[in-house]
Amino acid sequence: MLQNINQIKTAFKNKTAKIGIIGLGYVGLPLVMAFIDKNFQVYGFDIDETKITALNHGESYIKHISSEKIATCTTSNQFRPTSDFRQIYLVDAILICVPTPLTENKEPDLSYIVSTGELIAPHLKIGQLIVLESTTYPGTSAEILKPILEKGGLKSKEDLFLAYSPEREDPGNPDFGTANIPKIVGGDGDDARELACTMYNQIVVNTVPVSSLEVAEAVKLTENIFRAVNIAMVNELKVIYDKMGIDIWEVIEAAKSKPFGYMPFYPGPGLGGHCIPIDPFYLTYRAKQFGQETKFIELAGHVNTQMPNHVIEVLKNALKARFDQDIKNTKILILGLAYKKNIDDTRESPAFALMGLLKAQGASVAYYDPLVHVIPATREHSVLAGLESINWSAKQLVKYDAALICTDHDSVNYEELVANSKLIIDTRNATALINNKLGKIIKA
Question: Has this prediction a pTM greater than 0.85?
Fold first, then answer.
């Protein structure tokens, strides 16, 4: 096997190794491009035939990856998208980037990892490096994925190399992409870790090796729990300071002038994205198996999940105070459907929760998002699927009793929004620079 290890290392270094990436979404597709940019040939695997068809026709479905680049890569055969998992035997490294959502009971749903392992196990070959990138709890790689992969007869540390390297994508961030974000790497043994580091060192600024699969898995959870807890803190402060007549946004701006001991986090209408609303519950689940509680994490989760309710209460109070109007039968415009600004990703967006609460209280709801033209199908909000964004115009804006800013895209004309709206509920401080002499703008 030592000879195999050296051969694989050499193949990674001279870019002759073939890379297989499973899951061509917001994590997998940017990873494909990172390897292609360094002259690797990449096989992209996905069970979603619509994605495979689009990619083979040179069409991108992710905003920050151009169709032109996809077309160039597929035409040259540098990128080969496929739904045929039998082709796994053609690659030297397999990177698994599949979703890890929660069940209805807020427990980890590892079905995508399990089904991926079962799909590829019969087609593995000796010497392949397999890396899980999906966010999950410590123990998943060794206790869940490894036994599935070994069902095909090949053994980790003897025939295969198993590693874990969590994705650290930040969609829409102009400063950090796949290539300039350090990569955490843990392995099932030293050889697996070393091989994975050798591979990733070809495409990222540097790798950060850790002692085990479990440590690497814990690093990713820690990063996202850190954000979830701090966001919960400022969300709670927002509610408290609002009762005191203090603007949380002004407080944060002043506090961040301190050059040490403080890091700014910002409040909002709730958490969104595939990581921060979900990952803390993965550790909660795992901790219970060790007889441990996660009181602090669960409290943060409670605060964050209650924020949409708080926003709706602010809206209801503003309608009553300004127009003596109940929320029932009002027409509300949600501004921004993506989970954060300047991207088209709607996963776990708080906008869905807000729309659901409004509908449940009898309001009529529409939305505008310049980057999300149609609401995609989701498990929790299937009734909203297919709803289209309104067209932006002054004539459209005046039709609504209130506009609720959920996502603060830079491309939106907020002055026009304020000028043509009766009431604005601003959860992102997007209207901070606009004169509020008419009292239309309420922060929430």
Answer: yes
